[in-house]
Design goal:
alpha+beta, Structural Genomics Hypothetical 15.5 Kd Protein In mrcA-pckA Intergenic Region, Chain A, Pseudouridine synthase, four-stranded antiparallel beta sheet, 6 helices, 18% helix, globular
């Protein structure tokens, strides 16, 4: 299956592998480079090298190969399935589950569970370690995630991520009292300049990032908020809220360096997901109520003074 697009304005001089990641969010940078090494990416009809730089208006064509046999092994792990049909599966991921295998997490992941449940009915665009995975949420974040069961569905969902028609809303507890009842954080996010495992608000090698927030309840020393993603950068809500001085409760990477209220991971839940069905073209929306661990945290927060 081929994907064809023009390089948007503002990407002059950018590396093509980075542009592919922007235009095809389900495609990792390493997967994009592999496609280029195998001659499956062209610019103006000519095969390109992985360090190729582009200009606005260049016509890029990407040929996606047939799915490779998965290297992740199926595991009989229970799934909280919110919706499933021949194209997509929407699951409510529990806190503590990693989305796909990675160093230190070879099994017990959502991908292992999906492989057992779906068998071979998962898209191959994400590669042998991330079959079906279009977008991710962090290990300690709970909530909704959609996976693709074929490449056409994957391409459709990736396009929706790129044009922002796939909508995601999270609920979180942040430290401190937010002054305004609602607001927007518009600050680019890229790799931290000295710690490659972290992200940061930076103007260097970054991408635009926009988060809209709304206060739901104020507590003593904390605020319960709703965050709507306009973009989907790695750790976006965690980085943005820390950037404005209100890190997520329990986030020991971007916030306070010791557990709070019994949490050693961010208090964040993906509770709403809206998308256009890849086959029917109809809008669909899903919700996942706050899990018990989250409501227990809220119950331990004192009323605002």
């Amino acid at each position: 299956m081929d994907t064809i697009f023009e390089v948007p304005a503002g990407f002059d001089g950018e590396r093509l592998d980075l542009v592919l990641g922007q235009q095809m969010p389900g495609l990792s940078r390493s997967a994009a480079q592999k496609l280029m090494e195998n001659g499956l990416v062209t610019c103006g009809g000519r095969a390109v090298k992985k360090n190729t730089r582009v200009i606005a208006g260049d016509v890029i064509a990407v040929t996606l190969p047939e799915p490779e046999p998965s290297e992740a092994r199926p595991e009989n792990i229970p799934l909280d399935i919110v919706w499933e049909d021949g194209d997509i599966i929407v699951v409510n991921k529990p806190r503590g589950m990693v989305v796909h295998p990675a160093p230190g997490h070879a099994d017990g992941t959502l991908v292992n569970a999906l492989l057992y449940h779906c068998g071979s009915d998962l898209s191959g665009i994400g590669g042998v370690i991330r079959p079906g995975i279009v977008h991710r949420i962090d290990k300690d974040t709970s909530g909704l995630l959609v996976a693709a069961k074929n490449d056409a569905a994957h391409a459709s969902l990736s396009a929706q991520l790129a044009d922002r028609s796939l909508s995601r809303i999270y609920q979180a507890v942040v430290c401190g009292r937010l002054r305004d009842d609602e607001g927007t954080i518009d600050a680019p996010i890229g790799r931290h300049p000295t710690d490659r495992k972290r992200m940061a608000v930076t103007d260097r090698n970054s991408r635009p990032a926009v988060t809209h927030y709304r206060v739901l309840t104020r507590y003593s020393g904390y605020t319960f908020v709703e965050c709507r993603l306009e973009t989907g950068r790695t750790h976006q809500i965690r980085v943005h809220m820390a950037h404005v001085g209100h890190p997520l409760l329990g986030d020991m990477v971007y916030g306070h360096k010791k557990p709070e209220k019994g949490l050693s991971g961010q208090c964040l839940h993906a509770f709403f997901l809206k998308l256009i069905h890849p086959s029917t073209g109809k809008p669909m929306s899903f919700t996942a109520p706050l899990p018990d661990w989250f409501t227990d945290v809220l119950a331990r927060l004192g009323p605002e003074e």
